[in-house]
Write a structure and sequence with these properties.
The structure is a single chain. This protein is an alpha+beta fold. The protein folds into two domains: 1-32, no CATH class; 35-142, Roll (Nuclear Transport Factor 2, Chain: A). It is built from five helices and six strands, in the order ααααββαββββ. Strands 2-1-6-5-4-3 form a six-stranded mixed beta sheet, with helices on one face. The protein is globular and about 50 Å long.
Length: 163
């Protein structure tokens, strides 16, 4: 992989010509993609695969020895095959809406709404990455609840990401 600025003495067109790249596009640009942008794109692909039910693509982001923790139930799933198996056995119809993905380096957080058989549940997924793969994920789930009337004058609705 080529990283860093172009070598002095040749502009990108000369480098492309020397490589036989007649399109005039430096082929190293896509290979030298910002690591955080690459991780964000992989996370988006993970959640898109979850939405369409593509289990293999959904779990490609996990290291072979990854760990998934559900603190609220006290469960830990060790290894990609067990993580995939426990999700594959879910009886509900599931849909995923990503509210936000944020992070950098080896730590990323996804805020999602997961709808199980039409009932929405808020979820926060904290993923730790090593060498481009998730090594540890912790997921928290919370059911929506009505806003307290006493805060109505202080609050505004959170925008719906689908709109």
């Amino acid at each position: 992989m080529v990283c860093g600025p172009p070598r002095a003495g040749k502009d990108s067109a000369e480098r492309n010509s020397a490589r036989g790249n007649s399109a005039g596009r430096d082929s190293t640009v896509s290979r030298a993609m910002d690591p955080d942008a690459k991780t964000r794109a992989r996370l988006a692909q993970h959640w898109e695969a979850s939405e369409r039910g593509d289990a293999d693509a959904e779990h490609a982001i996990y290291a072979a020895a990854a760990i998934l923790d559900y603190p609220q139930s006290g469960e830990r799933f060790r290894g990609r095959p067990r993580i995939q198996a426990q999700r594959g056995g879910h009886p509900a119809e599931r849909h995923f809406t990503i509210r936000r993905i944020t992070g950098s380096g080896g730590l990323w957080v996804s805020e999602c709404v997961i709808t199980y058989d039409g009932v929405p549940t808020n979820s926060v997924s904290i993923m730790e990455f090593t060498d481009g793969l998730v090594t540890h994920e912790t997921q928290y789930f919370a059911d929506p609840f009505p806003a307290a009337a006493g805060r109505a004058a202080l609050a505004e609705p959170i925008p719906d990401p689908a709109q």
